Amino acid sequence: MTVSIISHFLGPEQEGLPKLASIGYRLVEVDRGIVARVEGAVFKELLNEAGMQAVCLMGADPGIADEDRALRSERIEKLKGSVLWATKVGAKIVETVPMWSGRSEARQAAFERAVGSLKEAGRFAADHGVVLAIEPVNKAETRLVLTLAQAVAMAKAIGLPSVRVMGDTHHMNMMEVDLGQAVRWAGEWLVHFHFSDNDRLPPGLGHMDLKTVVCALAEVGYKGALSLAEISRVGDAAACARHSLEYTRALISACQLREQVGR
Asked: What pLDDT, on a 0 to 100 scale, did the predictor assign at position 36?
């Protein structure tokens, strides 16, 4: 496991990336909102100058399960655009959140529309060496994919190696019954993970049992990043970034050692 952080955590990337690198970060996640504003080649140069790599593009896809075919097509094309931008900056993962807030009796139809949309986008992603990662979020944001089990069910229905699953401890804290068991059940489907304490606090500053999550990830052999993509800037932002990196690295080390001892 490794640690990443959102690329603009310490300000615009031109100034912020070198600061993150000086703290010890080598991996960043990038908000998909930047795709329309900055050329991928330009952003890649910023990464190179800071000695950093992009691991994932973060963003949601409202409309991808909508009844309106034209709207779905528009969202699919935007997702494909994010895939192309990812290839230019070297990111291998693009997050997708299939947003939908309709009536419960219409959920199955929405699920099938999302499967169709992500199957098309997933084939495009495969052609470009990118993986789409379905993220479940809490019920205040969607009514379609709320748990890791539901995300795995959607990925299985899509049936492409280029469509996998990611977790987010913020949403898991609200929607999962058992954090460790949810991770173990998702297992090999997991390719990325958003990591924060409750209420988006930096890890270790809240009351979540993050050790259970990380140790379960070590148990299933997760090799991806724990991404501090959405943590709150508590106090001094640089000190917050430093604490979050050191704490998360130590937790990963402890859980990996525990897994070795338990064998």
From this structure: 84
| CA distance linking residue 128 with residue 111, whole number of Å | 25
> Domains in the chain and their CATH numbers?
2-261 (3.20.20.150)
Interatomic CA distance for residues 141 and 134, integer angstroms? 14
Q: Which residues pair with 2 in a beta bridge?
A: 225
Per-residue pLDDT tens over the stretch 71-89: 999 999 999 999 999 999 9
* Euclidean distance between CA atoms 193 and 229, whole angstroms: 9
The residues, ordered by sequence, that sit 6+ positions from 262 with a Cβ below 8 Å of its Cβ are none
Which is nearest to 225 in space by CA: 28, 7, 17? Answer: 28
Q: What is the mean pLDDT of the chain?
A: 96
pTM of the full predicted structure? 0.96
Q: Please identify every stretch of the chain with a pLDDT value under 70, giving residue numbers as ranges.
A: 262-263
163-168/225-228 β-pairing: unpaired
